[in-house]
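Reminder: ligand-aware prediction takes two inputs, not one.
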Amino acid sequence: MIPSLRVLAVGLLLTVALGQTSQFQESVFLQFLGLDKVPSPQTVQPVPSILKKIFQDREAAATTGDSHGLCYIKDLGIQGNILRLLLDQGRFLYPKKPSQASSCLQKLLYFNLSSITDKEELTMAQLGLDLGPTTYYKLGPELELALSLVEEPHVGDWPVPLPGKMLVLQSVPWPQGVVHFNLLRVAKGWRNNPWKNLGLLLEILVKGNRDVGVNFQLQDTCARLRRSLRASLLVVTLHPEQCHPSSRKRREAVPAPQAFCRNLCHRHQLFINFRDLGWHKWIIAPKGFMANYCHGECPFSLTTSLNSSNYAFMQALMRAVDPEVPQAACIPTKLSPISMLYQDNDDNVILRHYEDMVVDECGCG
Ligand SMILES: *[C@@H]1O[C@H](CO)[C@@H](O)[C@H](O)[C@H]1NC(C)=O
Ligand SMILES: *[C@@H]1O[C@H](CO)[C@@H](O)[C@H](O)[C@H]1NC(C)=O
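Here is what comes back for the chain with 2-acetamido-2-deoxy-beta-D-glucopyranose:
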């Protein structure tokens, strides 16, 4: 059986860390991380507080060894191990004739979901619209948000798409801060038919009367909104292969005794500093991690002195008869996960949990 990509990746990471860097190994490790090349983010994005909180919770859980809920995100109450904050790649629209007199602004929102792989299952897609901080006027005018699906590709030299199915029509009495909308169903549709992802049409309308006095303030409000409006899509996915609990302990092996003898199989400490790899430019947190590794001999005497009903003992026995049979190897018997917060090439912020990254125990197997 070929070793799982996971095990391979830990091994490769170690060789990278130990100074035997080569392009190939880096690319395999990146593939394991779900990336096709080293990201080089254009701008440093602020880490959304929800991702920060989940990351910190994971770190705390990892230090206390409570990582059983690796693929359950408690803060959101959903299954998932990869969180992406996708930035809006759309643009403001300037229609020649406003659709309605009360139209404040129109924007085409576009989220590129192509970084989500086929194996991932979408469990959450939440649109966040940041309407900016509180105004000087304390309370701006009441706004109405109209969000609709763009269903038809638009043609012509004045590309204002036609609104399709209405998704949201909501009043925002005190326009400030972030408002959220559940777009799971829409995002699932886009994943199944990526060519149908033509974006969303957001229109912000001003409610109430527009008398002359208020009008000036309205222009101001709309201009301010245009400056501060930020849209993002928080997408959570579950990669089932990367989180079945049984993978925690992959293979039976004889636990190695605490290093009573220097040469015997035991865990060696190894801190992998992302800065040494040049990866600090795109990995936001952690700065590195205690990967550790297993090294040492697994002599027959050690294998037999411990519980002997497993493969390691059989192997040791066979080796005693036939020296061609390789010695039992010093391998990880207990591994734990880490979480990583990074930025990809599209400047999206991603929080992802990786199983089996830290060697906790070693043994002969
Ligand atoms: C989405 O992103 C992928 C990969 O970055 C890119 O190849 C593709 O052209 C993008 N699609 C759109 C519509 O921008
Ligand atoms: C051997 O196995 C028994 C029962 O499975 C267990 O109680 C004992 O701790 C094991 N001993 C060692 C050295 O692993």
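The pocket of 2-acetamido-2-deoxy-beta-D-glucopyranose (ligand 1) is lined by residues 112, 114, 346 (CB under 6 Å). DSSP finds seven helices and 19 strands in the chain. We will return to this case in the review session.
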